[in-house]
Amino acid sequence: MVEDVRSSPAAAEPHFLIVTYPAQGHINPARHLARRLLRATGARVTISTAVSAFRKMFPEAAVAGAGDDENAGEEAGHRDAAGVWYVPYSDGYDAGFDRAVHDHTHYLTQVKLVGSRTLSGVLTCLAAAGKPVTLVVYTLLLSWVAGVASSHGVPAALYWIQPASVLAAYLHFFRGTGGLDKAVAAASSDPMAVVEVPGLPSPVRIRDLPSFIVSTSGDDPYAFVSDMFRELVDMLGRDDSPSVLANTFDAMEPDAVASLREHGVDLVPVGPVLSFLDDAPAKNAVAGNNDLFRNDGNGYLDWLDTQAPASVVYISFGSLSMMSKRQIEEVAMAMSESGRQFLWVLREDNRRSEGGGADIAGGERGMVVEWCDQVRVLSHPSVACFVTHCGWNSTLESVACGVPVVGVPQWTDQGTNAWLVERLGTGVRVTVGDKEDGGVVDAGELRRCIDFATSEMVRAKATLWREKARAAAAEGGSSEKNLRAFVSKQLAGGI
Ligand SMILES: O=c1ccn([C@@H]2O[C@H](COP(=O)(O)OP(=O)(O)O[C@H]3O[C@H](CO)[C@@H](O)[C@H](O)[C@H]3O)[C@@H](O)[C@H]2O)c(=O)[nH]1
């Protein structure tokens, strides 16, 4: 581990500030990185996310932060049980952003406008409290944070919370390396068409690319997100490019890592960044504590305890994805016909969504919950496989727990993540029905994929990759060494 930086009285006390977008899939890897930095360096680590998310995570805490002089004392911010500090910024939506009501493009414009000002206030406030920030680390969709840090004379690094293969796809697409932009434009209507992505092992199909690359039509409500990734890639091409800490590990994506480095990206694989690899959660810890969603207690863990080893199908589509009513019914039918036990996370917003509204109960063989402590579920010996939308956090967690995957990717990086899972051999991607049919995966296909994912061959691969993932994160492993070298470099640079 890195020498405890507090033992060097001459240096200004290092203070890492991790700024994150207020979504569960962004906050989780930020919290894990915060804990790893704290453990590795002993330095102060603060997370800044939007006020609305902070309030959900810590309902009992006062909102301390942006320019609030009353809090500019020794105890500026809120400290969690792991010792990580929190000081929120305002994104202009302190009461929360509701996807059903608010416009996403407007939201992202506001985050940049209001967030730039209020995050600057956070940096000022922390300096006034005698805790000046020495390095800012920021997650996706927040490229403007680098400018705020720079205006305070503080260096910044990007924390890439998706696979290196996704970053490589964006980089080569927006730079037009090897004509990738043209190849995608020519083939984009055929999801099964093969394209050459420099540095990525073939075959890569159109459906395997990040959706923001492929869906460039004018009526795509998320076309603006593509522009944000283009901006990010442009920033990586400059002399003053930030280092990129990536939540992956060398052995998992060697080609993508090499390709990014060859094209000038200072990529530092530090993953899998998952706190449970460092400290197992206490047996009686409240599941989902400090998440943006609340679960109804730990009953499902007790239920898992009563199930046979490797018998339960765990189903979850993350914190954002919505399932249509038909898709929900197909999953329920697959479970009913398969005769398997299952634990299914079906968020409340998903149940009551337009086209949703399916009233699903577990019956004798299953449990349906609003939210769970996923890592504890995946670590449970009774879980046989994971039916997932392939969010990157869920994918990494499945790999680190050695649980085979049935991938049902929907958008953004998820298609690439599912491609990677198939390359590792730790799971299988479903074949989706016609677009005209709503792109639904039918019950028969789900059952076929579950049977395959629970085969001896896939289970053996999952076990193999579990060991590789843990070895990378362990003391002396590639990611642990990379993080140590990165921190040492920052310390030598003055923090
Ligand atoms: O009941 C649940 C369900 C999920 N989780 C956790 O919530 C996180 C979900 O993250 P992820 O699997 O990445 O899914 P999303 O929430 O959908 O994440 C968004 O952000 C990710 C990082 O950018 C992308 O990879 C995804 O595609 C994008 O949808 C994971 O850590 C899970 O362990 C729980 O703790 N309990």
TrEMBL record:
<dbReference type="GO" id="GO:0080043">
    <property type="term" value="F:quercetin 3-O-glucosyltransferase activity"/>
</dbReference>
<dbReference type="GO" id="GO:0080044">
    <property type="term" value="F:quercetin 7-O-glucosyltransferase activity"/>
</dbReference>
<dbReference type="InterPro" id="IPR035595">
    <property type="entry name" value="UDP_glycos_trans_CS"/>
</dbReference>
<keyword id="KW-0328">Glycosyltransferase</keyword>
<keyword id="KW-0808">Transferase</keyword>
<protein>
    <recommendedName>
        <fullName>Glycosyltransferase</fullName>
        <ecNumber>2.4.1.-</ecNumber>
    </recommendedName>
</protein>
<dbReference type="Pfam" id="PF00201">
    <property type="entry name" value="UDPGT"/>
</dbReference>
<comment type="similarity">
    <text>Belongs to the UDP-glycosyltransferase family.</text>
</comment>
<dbReference type="InterPro" id="IPR002213">
    <property type="entry name" value="UDP_glucos_trans"/>
</dbReference>
